[in-house]
Amino acid sequence: MNKLDSSLVARALREAGFAVVEQATDADAVIINTCSVRAHAEERVFSHLGHLKHIRKTRPQTVVVVMGCMAQRLGRRLLEHEAVDIVVGPGQIPRIPQMLADAIADRSAGKHIAVSAEIRAAGSESEARRLDEFEAAFDSDENHIKSQAFVRVMRGCNNFCSYCVVPYVRGPEISRPPGAIMEQIRKLAGGGIRQVTLLGQTVNSYEYPAGDRTYYLADLLEMASAIEGVRWIRVITSHPGKFDDSILHAMAGLEKVCPYLHLPAQSGSDEILKAMNRHYTAAEYLDLLGRAREIVGDIAIAGDFIVGFPGETEADFEATAELVRRACYKNIFVFKYSPRPGTHAVKKLADSVPYEVKQRRNGELLDQQNEIAADYNMRFVGRDVEVLVEGLSKKPHLNRAEHEDNPQLIGRTATDYIVVFNGPESLTGTFAKVRIGKTTALTLFGEVAEGPCYNKNSIAS
Ligand code: SF4
Fold first, then answer.
1. Which of 120, 164, 199, 266 to mutate to test the pocket of ligand 1 (most atoms within 8 A of CB)?
2. How far, in Å, from the CA of 343 to the mean position of ligand 1?
3. Contacts of 51 (CB under 8 A, 6+ apart)
């Protein structure tokens, strides 16, 4: 969501005559897009602001904008920071170009704020319409990876997981009209986009009533599949509590829909899941994974977990570790519980698990998953996989070019595996076939193979 918002704002500013510079010290304006999901993300913003305060001693004309969820959450408190001129919530980003131009034109005009006053109110529908228009006007892949684009299909969340700040800062679920989504995808495909990722906080909740029928995510997948030029369609992120099998059938039956699900479990303990207000049990979650594998075949699944949630005992953690052992994930993301102001968990539950215990559980869960994945990934050795090439490998230790024309590249399979291989940089944005020679828990390594690319099902089989 934040990557998409950043790219929309960057594109809108480019069209308004701004250009991107590499260093904050050269900038007339600095925009920080923020996340409120964990305290650490917010601490980093304050650290950036400290740095900007220092820069402004020699460059007082620099305008500093803070946008995103932290802007919505803290509002005027953030505006009081010495280094901040403009605060803009995620529902108000279409206003940034004008606010910024005004602030640059008149540095004496003071500070400005645009946050949604009634974030949970139905009035946010007009805000959603403005955001839709902004999105349609400024979508492109220029700030992302060549030939890939995000397309938001819905905004907000109604779930109120007890630890999460998102419903308070992004507002209620509002699904975009399917016609507008398809028009956007058609435009992107016409501009060379080959992979679209349909985005939603809980994308499987997509629901749009129109006349005598209601459109769901499976309908969007079918409609998007019919668009010429698009080759791969992804969806993120799904909530396991309301997952309709029609999505799995669409994945199985539609060639272009990638067999990959990001399906956060958060815990394997039913007690903790209940305290998290997640509305499913560990058994129901595993049952969903079983159905996904039965219907789609060799689907890749990624999971999220929070360790150290209030009251999490060693037995609760062991239940999580057991779920990870049984789930056979492609990869998992593990987060140490971080109390977020305003949430139910903060109001009702003490942050009872010591930091060292959270840290140990975090490490143990990742180690266990890495062992499982390292073992599982060896099945790829000797096989050819199709990847969409993202560009030069960014990690310096991986980036030693064998020679100038054949640098190390990175690509992803339809099942979201990261593949590192050498090849001409011109492959960026195209599909390539790679023969896998070596694997680790998170990465497949190989070399470009001759011959036509496979379709998604032959990769996964
Ligand atoms: S589903 Fe839960 S964790 Fe996800 S955004 Fe909504 S409230 Fe947050």
1. 164
2. 11
3. 24
DSSP states of 294-334 as a string? HHHSS-EEEEEEEES-TT--HHHHHHHHHHHHHH--SEEEE
Q: Measure 201 CA to ligand 1 centroid, in angstroms.
A: 7
In ligand 1, which atom is closest to the CA atom of 158? 6
Expressed in angstroms and rounded, the spacing between residue 296 Cα and the centre of ligand 1 is 25
Q: What distance in angstroms lies between residue 403's CA and the mean position of ligand 1's atoms?
A: 46
User: Whose C-alpha lies nearest to ligand 1, atom 2?
Assistant: 161
Q: Which domains can be identified in the chain, with CATH numbers?
A: 2-114 (3.40.50.12160), 124-378 (3.80.30.20), 381-460 (2.40.50.140)
Please state, in angstroms and rounded to a whole number, the distance separating the CA atoms of residues 331 and 251. Answer: 20
User: Does the beta carbon of 156 lie inside 6 Å of ligand 1?
Assistant: no
Sign, Cα dihedral of 7, 12, 14, 20: negative
Packing angle, helices 178-190 and 124-138, rounded to 10: 20
- CA distance linking residue 125 with residue 123, whole number of Å: 5
Q: Which atom of ligand 1 is nearest to the CA of 37?
A: 8
Specify the residue for token string 């990769």. Answer: 459
Residue 104's nearest CA partner among 37, 16, 180, 191 is 16
Tens-binned pLDDT, residue by residue, of the chain (461 aa): 898 999 999 999 999 999 999 999 999 999 999 999 889 999 999 999 999 999 999 999 999 999 999 999 999 999 999 999 999 998 899 999 999 999 988 877 777 878 776 555 444 667 778 888 898 888 865 545 679 999 999 999 999 999 999 999 888 999 999 999 999 999 999 999 999 999 999 999 999 999 999 999 999 999 999 999 999 999 999 999 989 999 999 999 999 999 999 999 999 999 999 999 999 999 999 999 999 999 999 899 999 999 999 999 999 999 999 999 999 999 999 999 999 999 999 999 999 999 999 999 999 999 999 999 999 999 999 999 999 999 998 775 555 555 677 899 999 999 999 999 999 999 999 999 999 999 999 999 999 998 766 554 444 43
Residue with the smallest CA separation from ligand 1 atom 1 is 159
What's the gap in Å between 244 CA and the centre of ligand 1?
18
CB-ligand 1 contact for 202 (6 Å cutoff): yes
Q: How many CB atoms lie within 10 A of CB 46?
A: 13
- What is the rounded distance in angstroms from the CA atom of residue 317 to the CA atom of residue 271? 11
